[in-house]
C-alpha cells in the first residue's frame, strides 16, 4: 500500500512537472519571432507583407490544427499525442531559422500547429488527473504560458546581440526548452501498449449553445490579446513614447498577466460560478486598451498595468472554462478543440483588421472602437459561458425528457 501511494505521488509530480514544461513552450515559438522580425526581414530581404504573413501564419495554423487534437488523442492516447507534438515542435524550432523563406513559412506553420495541439490536450489532462484542483492548475500553467511568452519576447534580442547579431541562433535556442519538455514528458509515459480510445458517443458540440458561448469567449478575448501583442508598441509610439519604452510597456503588460492568471481561476473556484470574475477581467481589459489609445499620456503606465491585469484573467478564465464546463476528459478535449480551433482562427485576423483600419483612417481611435466592440462581445459571451452548467447537459436533459 505504501509503495502504491509513493508511486501515485511520483506519477502526479511528474505529470504536474510535464504539464508546466509543455506550457512553457506554448508561446516562445510565436513571440521570439516578433522580437527579431526586423532583422529577419533584412536578412532574407522580406517585404512588409512577407513579414506580416510570417507573424500571422503560426496563429492561423494554431487554430487550424486545434480541432485535430481530439482525433490524434484517440488514435495515439492523449499523453503520446502531446509527446509527438512537443518533439515535432523541438525539431521545427531547431530547423526553421536555417531555411529559406518558403521553408521558413512551412516551419513556422508546423510550430503553430504543434502549439495548437498541445494547447487543446492540456486541459483534458488537467481535468483527468487533477479533477479537484482543475481551476488552480489551469491558473498555474497559464502563468507559465505567460512567463514563456514574456521570456521569449524579452530575451531573444539580447541573445541575438550575444551571438554577434545572428538572429538564426537566437531563434534556435528556443528548441532547448521544447527538448527538455519532451524528455520529461516521455519519462512519465505508461509503458503499456497503446489502447486507442473510442470516440465518446454524444451530440455534436457545434450544436451545443454553451459550447458556442465558451468558443466565442475564447475567440473574442484572443482577438484582443493578439491585437495588443501585435500593435500596442506601435500605438504607444504614435502617442509619443520611445521605441524602448513602448517595447517595455508590452513586456510589463505580459509580466503582470502572470499574477491574475493564477488569482482569477483560484478566486472563481471559491464562487458559485465564474460570471463575476469574467466580467471584471473584461472590464479591466477594455479600460486598459482604451486608456492606452485615448487616455491622458501622463497616466499611460497606469493603463498598461490595468490592461495586463485584465488580460491575464481573461485568458486564464478562458482556459478554465475548457476544463470545468466539460463532464469528462474526452469532452474537455473536444470542447478545447472547438473553442481554440475557431477562437484562434478568429484571433489570427485581429491584428490584420487593426492594421487595415489604421491604414484607412490613420486614427487609432477607430481601431479602439473595434476593440471596444470586440470586448463587449467577449463580455456577453463570457457571462453566458460563466454559468454553472456542463456542455451537453442541455441535450441530455432533452433526451431524458
Helix/strand layout:
Blueprint: H1 2-24, H2 28-35, H3 37-44, H4 48-65, H5 69-76, H6 78-95, H7 101-129, H8 134-162, H9 167-172, H10 175-187, H11 209-238, H12 243-269, H13 275-294, H14 300-324, H15 329-348, H16 350-361, H17 364-385, H18 393-400
Helix pairs in contact: 1-7, 1-8, 1-10, 2-8, 4-7, 4-15, 5-6, 6-7, 6-10, 7-14, 7-15, 8-12, 8-14, 11-12, 11-13, 11-14, 11-15, 11-16, 11-17, 12-13, 12-14, 13-14, 13-17, 14-15, 16-17
Domain Major facilitator superfamily (MFS) profile: 210-401
GO molecular function, one term: transmembrane transporter activity
Protein name: Cyanate transporter
Q: What descriptive keywords fit this protein?
A:
401 residues; mainly alpha; Growth Hormone, Chain: A; 2 domains; 18 helices; 81% helix; 0% strand; disordered C terminus
Amino acid at each position: 500500500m505504501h509503495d502504491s501511494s509513493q508511486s501515485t505521488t511520483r506519477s502526479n509530480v511528474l505529470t504536474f512537472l510535464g504539464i508546466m514544461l509543455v506550457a512553457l513552450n506554448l508561446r516562445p515559438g510565436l513571440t521570439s519571432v516578433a522580437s527579431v522580425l526586423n532583422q529577419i526581414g533584412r536578412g532574407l530581404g522580406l517585404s512588409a507583407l512577407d513579414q506580416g504573413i510570417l507573424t500571422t501564419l503560426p496563429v492561423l495554423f494554431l487554430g487550424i490544427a486545434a480541432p485535430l487534437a481530439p482525433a490524434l488523442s484517440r488514435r495515439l492516447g492523449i499523453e503520446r499525442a502531446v509527446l509527438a507534438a512537443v518533439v515535432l515542435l523541438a525539431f521545427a524550432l531547431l530547423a526553421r531559422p536555417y531555411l529559406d523563406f518558403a521553408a521558413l513559412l512551412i516551419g513556422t506553420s508546423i510550430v503553430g500547429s504543434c502549439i495548437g495541439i498541445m494547447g487543446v490536450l492540456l486541459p483534458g489532462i488537467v481535468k483527468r488527473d487533477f479533477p479537484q484542483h482543475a481551476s488552480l492548475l489551469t491558473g498555474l500553467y497559464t502563468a507559465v504560458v505567460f512567463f514563456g511568452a514574456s521570456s521569449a519576447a524579452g530575451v531573444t534580442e539580447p541573445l541575438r546581440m550575444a551571438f554577434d547579431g545572428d538572429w538564426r541562433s537566437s531563434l534556435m535556442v528556443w528548441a532547448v526548452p521544447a527538448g527538455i519538455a519532451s524528455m520529461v514528458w516521455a519519462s512519465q509515459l505508461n509503458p503499456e501498449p497503446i489502447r486507442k480510445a473510442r470516440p465518446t458517443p454524444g451530440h455534436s458540440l457545434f450544436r451545443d449553445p454553451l459550447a458556442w458561448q465558451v468558443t466565442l469567449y475564447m475567440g473574442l478575448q484572443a482577438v484582443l490579446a493578439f491585437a495588443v501583442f501585435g500593435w500596442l508598441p506601435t500605438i504607444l509610439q504614435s502617442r509619443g513614447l520611445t521605441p524602448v519604452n513602448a517595447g517595455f510597456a508590452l513586456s510589463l503588460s505580459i509580466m503582470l498577466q502572470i499574477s491574475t492568471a493564477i488569482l482569477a481561476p483560484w478566486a472563481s473556484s471559491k464562487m458559485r460560478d465564474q460570471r463575476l470574475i469574467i466580467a471584471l477581467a473584461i472590464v479591466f481589459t477594455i479600460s486598459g486598451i482604451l486608456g492606452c489609445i485615448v487616455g491622458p499620456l501622463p497616466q499611460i503606465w497606469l493603463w498598461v498595468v490595468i490592461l495586463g491585469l485584465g488580460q491575464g484573467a481573461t485568458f486564464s478564465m478562458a482556459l478554465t472554462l475548457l476544463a470545468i464546463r466539460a463532464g469528462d476528459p474526452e469532452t474537455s478535449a473536444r470542447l478545447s478543440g472547438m473553442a481554440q480551433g475557431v477562437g484562434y482562427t478568429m484571433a489570427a485576423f485581429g491584428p490584420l483588421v487593426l492594421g487595415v483600419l489604421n491604414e484607412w483612417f490613420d486614427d487609432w481611435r477607430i481601431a479602439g472602437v473595434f476593440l471596444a466592440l470586440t470586448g463587449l462581445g467577449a463580455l456577453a459571451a463570457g457571462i453566458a459561458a460563466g454559468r454553472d452548467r456542463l456542455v451537453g447537459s442541455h441535450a441530455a436533459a432533452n433526451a431524458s425528457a
